[in-house]
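Worked example 3. Consider a protein that binds nicotinamide-adenine-dinucleotide.
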Amino acid sequence: MSRLKNESVLITGGASGLGLAIVERFLDEGASVTVMDKSEKATSALTQKIKEKGFADKLLAVNGDVRNYQDNENAVASCVAKFGKLDCIIGNAGIWDFSKSLVDLPVEQLDQSFDDLFHINVKGYLYLAKAALEPLARSGGSMIFTVSNAGFYPDGGGPLYTATKHAVVGLIRQFAFELAPHIRVNGVAPGAIDTNLRGSEALGQDEKVIPGKMLGQAIPNLVPVGVMPKPKDYAGAYVFFASREDNIPSTGVILNHDGGLSARGFTKNRGGDKLLSQLNIEV
Ligand SMILES: NC(=O)c1ccc[n+]([C@@H]2O[C@H](COP(=O)([O-])OP(=O)(O)OC[C@H]3O[C@@H](n4cnc5c(N)ncnc54)[C@H](O)[C@@H]3O)[C@@H](O)[C@H]2O)c1
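Given these inputs, the predicted complex is written out as structure tokens:
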């Protein structure tokens, strides 16, 4: 696997969950990877893990907060200083709202919880894109953003999270238009994943973690593919959009990589549960 040989990639939120799986896959594919993440504990653990895998010279871990423009600029400059260029950014750091509904959102926490969600999930992507513009224009590179099923459908979060992910869809389409033909801009919209996804500080959810085990039991019955994919199962989609050989026709594209949510039926979630027995195929 070396589809990303000589490519230099910068990812936010790369020290945990989906981001970490993308980092590991990109290193396997030959890329040099710069990670910007807020958690010092997670970036130290990442550095140690990658060192043990023998990729220490291909990884640069920078601590930073995506809500701070200077931190984004610093990550981009550090990446270019170490690896000589930047070919692809992956905006990925995000938080959830644990599906807090309109009814349950306390009025006195609306302002701050709105800012918590929008500043990380939307402004963080805007800042990253702005900070990386010049090196990406030089390299003829690309941008990839993590969306979510919540970027397209209700019930993947509450109104705050769902609105942030719909906003990300808008950013991708507008960036794709404005930056063509020099920089490709695409997105990946995963479904539920067992990660360390946390929530809004204002809502008291900053130490709360997405209930992965519970989702792992429920999701296989809800999605047509019948499994809850692991973080690493999503990484290939990012490789595809980052690969100069493979992304030639794609800009403004968002891959609905969510277990088949758009292929659910009217009366049931999937129609093929009896397919093998109908065809007399033994498993
Ligand atoms: N877990 C899911 O079910 C799911 C589903 C669809 C989409 N997503 C999206 O996937 C992306 C990654 O989330 P995850 O599930 O891997 O969660 P995660 O918490 O495991 O990873 C997110 C990383 O982002 C970092 N981060 C958070 N706030 C930051 C900030 N202000 N500045 C810098 N880094 C920050 C965290 O420290 C963490 O390392 C998010 O955009 C999320 O919305 C997750």
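Take a moment to read the result before moving on. The chain has a mean pLDDT of 97. The two ends are 32 Å apart (CA to CA).
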